[in-house]
Amino acid sequence: MGVRRRLSTILVLCLVLASCGGLKEKTLARAGKKGFWRVEKTQTSSLWAWLSRLKLMSSIIKDTGYQGERWWFVSPAGKKAFIRAVNGAAPDSRDVDPAAFLPAAATNLAGWGFNSFGHGVDVNAWVPVGQSMPAVVSLSLDKWGAGMMQGVFEPACTQNVAKACEFLAGPLMKSRNVVGILWEAPARFTPRDLLLAYAAMRPETASKNRLVTFIKEQCKEPGALQARMPSVRDFDELLSLQEWDQYELIDSDAEGFAAVVLAAYAAQVKAEMKERLGEYVCLGPLLSLDLPVKAIQAVAEQVDVLAFSVSSADGRLPKRRLEEIYAATGGKPVLLLDSGQRLARGSGPAVDTVEGQAASYRRLATAAAGVPFVAGFGWTAYRDSPDEAWGLLDAAGTPRQPLTLTATEVNALLDGMHKAGLAPEQSATCYSEDRFAGAGRPVRGIGRLPAAIRVDGDLSDWPAAWPTFPDFQMVKDLDPAPFATITAGWTDRGLAFAVRVSAETVSLVRPEAYWRNADFVELLLDGTGAHPEGYTPAAVHIVILPRGGGADGRGALAMGIHHQGDSFEADERNFKAVAVASSVRKDARTVSEASAPWPVRVRLAQPFWVVEALVPWSVLKLTAPKLETRLGFNAVACRVSAGRADEMFWATPRGEAGLDHPSTWGDLVLKEKPE
Question: Tens digit of pLDDT for each residue in 555-570?
Fold first, then answer.
């Protein structure tokens, strides 16, 4: 008898001996009431945990699917489930028989392996089919003039929240098959949007007064207000002012104010829900992962589950960000309710083919199931709208077969994936932070360039056939269409880079306002080569724009972007230490550029642009470079074209991991000849 078989026998005996319950899962936490949908955190027994740590037993344990702590949704009948929902299932003017729409949708979704309607369901139309397919139900607070943007400190807001809860309580008396109650879907705002909305309110409103009080609390001394807004003399003037421009610290103040607003709003809605809808799981508003952690914490204190909308260009999830939120909120479970790619058109991430959509579903659903505290996943829409191609069905109501077939296959596996966790190769595909789990960290040997090389945007003085990086890839790799190449070399003076971008135009904005709306290249370098978790004085983030520099804005511009721990001053923008040039200056022509409003579109005489840069060794805190020196490196190129921004990257893409964590970058190795 083989070792594995003997151990399997021992394991079976352990199960028999522990039939009294010693190996059963334990429920560690619960939100919601039995007889209704609820969420539970379960844990395998201590014996399972001990056995899984034994080298010879771990793979056998994994085969059984028992793996540590997990959050689950639990049905009224007590069955655990990883939620897989579809949003936006509702009839409209296209439907001859609106009453038949939801029963047909429930049949389709069940056949494709889904177990819930997502947000966007008409509650009254859903109740008759509710027993066959549960739903996430929305309060629709905007219908009653309530919500974060309407001023949560106004008495009318409290009254309207109560009306919304009371209105929903009526139809829900006929059904307990509600996965959870969402407040607003989606709650699309940034902290800056929120602050400016409150600033635009009338001086007599409680919400405007609360904002001004918050600004007073931040200032702490009289001169601090004018440092923020030089044209404002005092707080009385600020209260009467409804257009807040020239605001120097708007983003940091907006983050703090967003937490204040969300704390008040969450407490208000939670109180009304408890009185009228107390038996159902509370999901809160549909939030963005980009919100400040403090704002998310304010909501988490009042909800059972945090619901998020996820925008992902390549379908990978930002696991590091999710883990940060889970830790900061004291272990609050998560429902990724709104995620998915549009097909060719529409707002947010888009793919070019139905096959790309199907690949996106596979990646997003698998990634969500692999996170222990994510208890469910939702696809963006059931059917296309006139403006958004995002559904399992197209606008005519025809199923997109590659997408529905993939969903059917993947959905059948999600409960098991959630229970057992993902294999390393799956993690490498699903999470941006785990890209190196498969092939490992990218490494590139770069050769020595001629000492006399000029940085002028003309690469004719580079050696013939100098190789480009073969692994410079699209962020949107679901149906890739590369548009840029990158190459690098080194001299005694520093590191040289050249990026060539295929494009018919160059998009340019005022870089000091918001350079990400433009065409650009980012270089991220770490002189230590040690892959630290955060920035050090030897690490640098450089943004290069092909236009925007010089007195007339026609030259290239390099900016140093400050990160905590680097050697930049927080307000340093024009990074003059880097020599940078662009081919756009000599090859471009414009139409009345001097009088044109920003942004300016520059039309190229040739269908590409090139930036060339030399980063001195001193920037990386290095003196005499040697062969085999290793440097941390990442690069991102962005092209704005056809109303959409596409990006390519080398080690990791833009996002929480790629730009902020040198630990996620690859390696450049100095060689005599390029590899």
Answer: 788 988 888 899 887 6
